[in-house]
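Example record

One chain of 304 residues, shown exactly as stored in the release files.
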Amino acid sequence: MSRRGWIMFITMGVIWGVPYLMIKVAVGDGALTPAALVFLRTGVAAVLLLPVAAARGQLRPLLPRWRPLLAYTVAELAVPWLLLSNAERHITSSLAGLLLAAVPLVGALLATLTGAERLGPRRLVGLLVGLAGVAALVGIDFTGSSAAALIQMAVVAIGYALGPFILVRYMSDLPSLGVVAASLGLGALGYLPVGLMQLPRHLPRPTVLASVLGLAVLCTAVAFLVFFALIDEVGPVRATVITYINPAVAVALGVLFLHEPLTVGIGVGFVLILAGSVLATRRTPTRSTAPTPAEPVPATVGEP
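Predicted structure tokens for this chain:
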């Protein structure tokens, strides 16, 4: 990997590990509702990316595929971002980031169930190890937290795995930036009514405003542009490896800035999920992988 590739790789690993902290700051004390936060994030990012996509002629080709585009928007952005923001009102940002490290496991399981990939012994072991990691997190570090938050995080993980699946199956030939920009625009329009109604009557404190702008500008608009450049530089397979870095960044930021606990469950769970994800998603050399615009999964990137 070139020096430029390493710089972008490290940058993306950090950028997509930051949202959990920013979401926690924005909704943790009720400064913003989850719906208002999603509306502001998608709206600002769409304003920044839609003109770029339009100038490059990447929006018109999307019109015939509006149905899968809408499905992708719901699965990858609209539902996960709302539930993630709501769940972080009850759990730490560190735990949220670590639970979403299991997205590659969900993606591998989805690929197996749909026949896209074969579930061999290595993948089966990876799924079992990864599930053990999730169990370690839930059993040790979820004590006292809302059970509803756990269910919401499970739906988020499914959405982050389903979005890239829709993308690869129905829109793999479409321009990535156009898909992301249009999805953000659709998300903003969908949340417009409730988002406007739930905006705070008074200007939130500076840290909340900084978190909203950081989520929209840095972690969404800039992040996708850098991610596409990273794919061009190192290829889609290497680019998705940032999925395994994001949770560690989320934990480090939560511990440093929010004084969240660094427990045995976090350590054990992260190691098991990471090992399981690597085993469950590793492909044989003869197989090819399709590029995806979003994450953290990831196709499985799943950008938080």
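Notes: Residues 28 and 89 are 5 Å apart (CA to CA).
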